[in-house]
User: Fold this.
Amino acid sequence: MSREPDPPELPTAPRLDETEQVFAALAHVARRQIVLMLSHFGDELPSGYLAKKLAHSWPTTTRHLHVLEAAGIVEVRREGRGSFYRLDRERVRRVVGTWLDLLEPPAPARKWQPKGKRT
Amino acid sequence: MSREPDPPELPTAPRLDETEQVFAALAHVARRQIVLMLSHFGDELPSGYLAKKLAHSWPTTTRHLHVLEAAGIVEVRREGRGSFYRLDRERVRRVVGTWLDLLEPPAPARKWQPKGKRT
DNA sequence: CTAATAATTAGCGATCGAGCTAATCAACGA
DNA sequence: TCGTTGATTAGCTCGATCGCTAATTATTAG
Assistant:
């Protein structure tokens, strides 16, 4: 059975811990700024460049980058003495977007009513 | 000039501290659960109902609700000895959604290049 | 080899967040 | 009035997070 050589774009629903990590990572303003900087650039940025912008010390930025990396939000490519970070836009969109979609009100908008009060 | 008597739905861009509060509030799984419960119900839920579901003590739930309220994500209505919480769906959608939209790549996808390396 | 640059790791102090129990407040029912 | 129920407030502890400086690693330049 050789239908598709590789499922190319099946955006599986985010796992629970994925959601956890991504939302936790995005909770800090510095990390959201990093994400936006990477996004605005479209490509990859070196660690030092980000560190300079962030009004924090470089090691602090490094740690934020680690948090983002652990959450799968960014990937790093090492070359020479440089570290180049790249945003996984899809992942952020998928995890956050999917969660946001859950906010749509369900069909008939059930209403809570006090227990044991029937009729 | 009487065009519209009242701007009915001008979703102003989220303020910076709004984004901060909302993202911080959504960073905790229990609070995201509360939001989803409220959303799924469509209407309002009493504090005790939420507390029972959450596998935490009631005071802990109370505090989570306060965080959500401070972020403007939920509103509370007191009646008798009950507290009824309601979700502000629009606010969540607006703040999170707007931020998510910033992730769209800008037009030509600029690329970073090392400084002082011209030509 | 040595100096300089890019980046991370180590480790510290301060603060914040989240959980709990106990105490308190407010409204209702008997 | 008195007890019960719904809910919050007070106060504590533990652990995680965040920021920093100093030290370390690794690569490149001279």
About this structure: The longest helix of chain A spans residues 29-41. The mean pLDDT of chain A is 86.
